[in-house]
Amino acid sequence: MTEILDGKAVAKTINEQTKARVAKQKRPVTLAVIYDPSNDGSQLYVGMKSRQAAKLGIVTRDIPISTDATTESVIQLVEELNDDESITGILVQSPLAKGIKERQIFSAVAPHKDADGLGATVQGMLFGDSLENYTVAATPQGVMTLLAQYNISLKGKNAVVVGRSQLFGRPMFALLTNADATVTLAHRYTEPTTLKALLKNADIVVVGVGIPNFIQGEDLKKGATVIDVGMNVVDGKTTGDVNFSSAQGIAGYITPVPGGVGPMTIATLLENTVTLAEQHQ
User: Fold this and answer.
1) Is there a catalytic annotation at residue 49?
2) Strand partners of residue 205
3) What is the pTM of this model?
4) Rounded Cα gap, residues 158 and 240, in angstroms
5) From residue 168, how far is each of 58, 161, 163, 180, 244 by CA, in Å?
6) Which CATH class is domain 138-261?
7) Which of 36, 114, 116, 228 is catalytic?
8) Domain boundaries, given as residue ranges, for the chain
């Protein structure tokens, strides 16, 4: 029997807690969001985040970049937001326009305002398992919260992360490592036979490569915990990177798409934002 990891329900609890924390702040909690308005996906995600933030009492300042924006001009914008005392946190919504060097933009965000934990400084603290306060990218942190909510043990377990992006795979690898799992980082270019062997031995599988049905149920170890970070649209329907129906009865736990990791990402981003407010009030 496969148990569904209900990210929507867990996110609701987190949002209720975040709302209560926001209400205790003496100053408005404000999240600045830099995004490319020509990207339909970004428009959708930014709108979703803004609506949820408003429900929790968080103010959002959505800042579309111009069509002629450059890496330098966006960095200048970030630096202005860094210096703006009315801004609690900054989110750079990926992807930005072609030609803009996103990693430079991420790292221009001041660590004490890095709401999505994508800058080199805070990611270095994550990989170093720092004892100081730092934010972590919302998607992998949301995954960790979801696993903890269902009391899924990680210590000593074999984990495979499929996907190596700065937003997901690399910080996911670090978080699982810091939780004492034995972690392998694979990606869409890992040899298929190698990946299948890794998956068959994995107690925990976290995948986010953006390829529908990239992993089939037959690829999985019986009883594995499967976290599907993928979000794809096929024939007008949203689907993940794991063939959900074929994993039923094989996986011990699995996240649905939608309703799994997605709600956790937004809830964690807003949770991060109020945490920054509390740390620097």
Assistant:
1) yes
2) 160, 226
3) 0.96
4) 22
5) 24, 9, 7, 19, 21
6) alpha beta
7) 116
8) 27-110, 138-261
Rounded to the nearest 5 degrees, what angle is found at the Cα of 259, between the Cα atoms of 255 and 264? 85
Q: Which residues are annotated as a binding site for NADP(+)?
A: 163-165
- Would you identify the CATH topology of the domain 27-110? Rossmann fold (3.40.50)
Active site residue: 36, 52, 93, 228, which one?
93
Binding site per annotation, positions: 163-165
Residue 74 near residue 34 (C-beta atoms within 8 A) = yes
Residue-by-residue pLDDT tens, the chain, 281 positions: 999 999 999 999 999 999 999 999 999 999 999 999 999 889 989 999 999 999 999 999 999 999 899 999 999 999 999 999 999 999 999 999 999 999 999 999 999 999 999 999 999 999 999 999 999 999 999 999 999 999 999 999 999 999 999 999 999 999 999 999 999 999 978 999 999 999 999 999 999 999 999 999 999 999 999 999 999 989 888 899 999 999 999 999 999 999 999 999 999 999 999 999 999 87
